[in-house]
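User: quick one - fold this with iron/sulfur cluster bound?
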Amino acid sequence: MKNNQTTALTLYSGGLDSTLACRVVAAQGIKVVAVKFVTPFFGYELLQKQDEYIQKIKETAGIDIILRDVTLPYLELLKKPAHGFGKNFNPCIDCKIFMLSEAKKMMHEIGASFLVTGEVIGQRPMSQRRDALRVIERDSDCEGILVRPLCAKNLVPTQAELDGLIDREQLHAFSGRNRTPQIKLAKQFGITDYPSPGGGCILADPILGLRIEEHYQEHKNIIPEDILLLLTGRQFKLPTGGWVVVGRDYPEDIKIENLRQPGDWFLETKEVPGPSAILRYSTGPEELETAASIVVRYSKKSVVGQGSAVIIADQDGARHEIDTRPLDDAVIQPWQKK
Ligand code: SF4
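Assistant: Sure. C-alpha cells for the protein plus iron/sulfur cluster:
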C-alpha cells in the first residue's frame, strides 16, 4: 500500500516552543522530522554526542531529529546581516531567514510538504513581531509553506492549511510573552523536561556577544576555530595587536592545543606546572616574550612566585625557550578582554 502520510520539517531549537510545535503537528497524524542547526554560537557541543542527543530527544520529546552544522555560511552571515542586530550581536531576523532557507533546501531530501516553526507572534521584540514574521517568510522564500502551529490562528492561512495538509482548527492562537498557554499545552502532552526560554545563544549574551563583535570588527577572515578560541580561557588583546588565550584548567589547555592553527605560537611551561596558551596574530619577538610572561603569571604561584620560569614556544614546529618573569596584574589587566 502506498504511504500517503504527509511529512513536515520543523526548525528545532531545543526549547519548549519548537517541541510543542512538533507535537501539535504530529498530533494530526503528520510525520514530523526536526532539524537543529548548530554553529559555535548555539548547539555546537551536541556534535560531540550526536547519537546520544538524537536518542534523548526521541525518548523525552518523541521527536526524530537531524543535526546540521551550518557554521561556515553562518560566519559569513554575521559580517553584514541585512536586518541588523538585536540588543547584542544577535542577528535574529537574518538568523531565522537563513535557517528557513536551509530548511527549505532540505525539504526534498526529507520529502516534506511544509515547514514548521515554534514562533509565537509578539513573543520576542525583534524577530516575532507581525511585520518581522512576514519579512522572515518573504526573504527566506517560504511564503505559503511555513506553518507556525502555536500562533497560526492569528495569521493568515498558509497554503498547507488551504490544501488540507494540516487542519487549521487544531492549531493555536498564542500570542505575546505570557508562557501560561505553552506550559498548559506541555502538560497536556506530558512534556516536563524543557529548558527556560531564550537561553543558549552566545550571540545574545552581552559579554560574549560583544567579544565576538569586536573580533568581527578587527578581522576579515574568521574561521570556526577563532570563535571556539574566543569562547575559551582567559583572553588578552596585547597593545601591539596579538591575541593571547590562556587555559584556566586542564580541559581548556587541551582545547587550546586542539585549536592551534598554522602560524600560531603555542606556549607551555617547561618545568613548573602551568597553563597552555596560544598567541595568534603575533607581530614579533617582543610580543612572544609578553605572551610568555603572561603564561608565567598564571603558572603555579607557589612554585614560580616572582621568580622566572622557562616557557616553550612552538610555531609550526620551530621551538624556542623563553626564560621570563611573570607580568604584574596591573600591566596585564587592561589587556584582558571581558
Ligand atoms: S537568539 Fe541566536 S539563535 Fe536565536 S534567532 Fe537570535 S541569533 Fe538566531
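One thing worth noting: DSSP finds 13 helices and eleven strands in the chain.
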